[in-house]
């Protein structure tokens, strides 16, 4: 069924100054209204509703919700003429012209096919018979932009993680290192990831004295290919801290961006704090004892990758501000 829009504009003093032309136009108006009634477009008799223009009309959306059309600006006084109800219901309003302008009555009939998306052309106070989509359709869609890499943890602590891996030996005499456990902790030291990982080749040396890995730990361990995907997903776009971290990346078959990598075995500031030579590659155990006054990697059960990752993150935080300032100045100089 077609949609119909009828706009009628009359001047305020038109009734007192009718001319012969005005009567003819009014006659044509009545004839057209009668024609529309005969065609079935107007199902009820015309009713005057002086308040329909000042209230909001609700138009149903496709999803069953309702939206309110914006009210007509208060700077324009509207006088409502008869409006039709049913599928083609719309208020016929005439705006009050300025005192210095005399506008003759005019009639505009616009027929729009159902389903048309084209907006009708006309004055700003014209009410369209077709429902307009509400802005609530896009509700719930939010965009969250990730902070740029290289920022200090003061602004983006979630962008900083510490990584430590434990290896077992494969091949002749267990000389080839394979990943058997991986731990990732957050900036605050909370465990983000910690799993035993089953290598894709047979293990010939569990290196339990150092790795802490036993045969029973790998019986139901996560396959290497699956674990690798999980780990790399967590490292993506993060600033990764580790001790001699190139060894961890090697068993993962992965290369992390240098700008997002912090290796505590190669930070002169830490060696200076510990009282070691700046060029010395001190072990994690020695640095932790000298700077944090804490013993790690003790006992006969082997290392704990969670303990090592936490110690690495704590060491980084000791020199974080000064280190990041130095790296930023070097980056600007280059």
What would you note in describing this structure?
The protein has eight helices and 13 strands. Strands 7, 8, 9, 10, 11, 12 and 13 form a seven-stranded mixed sheet that branches. Strand 2 and strand 3 form a beta hairpin. The chain is elongated, with a radius of gyration of 39 Å. With 334 residues, the chain is an alpha/beta fold.
Write a concise synopsis of the structure shown.
The chain has helices spanning 20-39, 208-211, 224-235, 245-252, 268-274, 284-292, 305-318, 320-333; strands spanning 3-9, 58-60, 66-68, 78-84, 90-95, 106-112, 160-170, 176-186, 191-198, 203-205, 222-223, 239-242, 261-263. With 334 residues, the protein is α/β, with parallel strands linked by helices.
Q: What characterizes the major β-sheet?
A: 7 strands, mixed
Mean pLDDT, to the nearest integer, reads: 73
Tally of helical runs: 8
Distance between the termini: 71 Å
Dominant shape: elongated
Give the helices and strands as they follow along the chain: EHEEEEEEEEEHEHEHEHHHH
Beta-strand segment tally: 13
Report the portion of residues in β strands: 15-25%
Poorly predicted runs are 44-150
- Computed Rg: 39 Å
* Class derived from helix and strand content: alpha/beta
Helix content: 25-40%
Helix-strand blueprint:
Elements: E1 3-9, H1 20-39, E2 58-60, E3 66-68, E4 78-84, E5 90-95, E6 106-112, E7 160-170, E8 176-186, E9 191-198, E10 203-205, H2 208-211, E11 222-223, H3 224-235, E12 239-242, H4 245-252, E13 261-263, H5 268-274, H6 284-292, H7 305-318, H8 320-333
Parallel strand pairs: 7-12, 9-11, 12-13
Antiparallel strand pairs: 1-6, 2-3, 4-5, 7-8, 7-10, 8-9
Helix pairs in contact: 6-7
